[in-house]
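For reproducibility, we list the full input for the magnesium ion complex.
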Amino acid sequence: MRLVLFDIDGTLLLSGGAGTRSLYRAFQVRYGIEPDWTAIRFDGKTDPLIIQEIVSMYGVDEEPGQDLYDIYLSILPDEVRRSPNFQVLAGARELVTQLSADPGFLIGLATGNVETGARLKLERAGLSSYFPFGGYGSDSGDRTELIRTAVRRGSELAAPQAVDEVFVIGDTPRDVQHGRAAGATTIAVATGHYGLDELRGCGPDLAVAGLQPMGPVLDFMSSGSRTGREAVEGEAGPGP
Ligand SMILES: [Mg+2]
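The corresponding predicted structure, in tokenized form, follows.
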């Protein structure tokens, strides 16, 4: 059995800024601050990490707790529903549909979104039901850890079949670095804010311009053992 773990933002869909706007408002409501979003790069970061960076930047004198998430998650449904530029990325639905019909694959999520946020975005996209499990920003602020959580949950679902290989598909260098640190085979897709050359520079096992056409990604995941995996597995931390 092969596990395929998808990132959400920039990989399966674009929320058109719904998450950013919701977090912005939550910070306004909870702390009375208006973060300068141009100073923060969101891509590939987990929700807890983004929140931590904003808190540090503005010298907020307390650890953000569940109350900030509660405000964020009270705003997000409406933002996701109304977001005019929300779109499912080309090829994503086709690839997910194809993989979920293949008994050799089990698909899940590896996303920095907290689980409720992830599900809201996927529900608008009509994709949520394809992903029976995942690792989320609500599991860990550390992307390597949340990928490991996804692998553990996927392995439990796959049992008694053994998991032979784990793929992480994402649009940022962080997906590649943390996927590799978690022992996964990494596929970079240049449909977010990073170009193909920039992603190739991080050394993913495969880099593609997009999920359409899905042939190259499907062929890669269906092919046999890849050279060099032994050297990668067991690494203690993310790459440079
Ligand atoms: Mg992403």
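Confidence is low (pLDDT under 50) at residues 228-240. Strands lie at 2-6, 13-14, 87-88, 105-110, 134-135, 165-170, 185-189, 206-208. Both points were considered when choosing residues for closer inspection.
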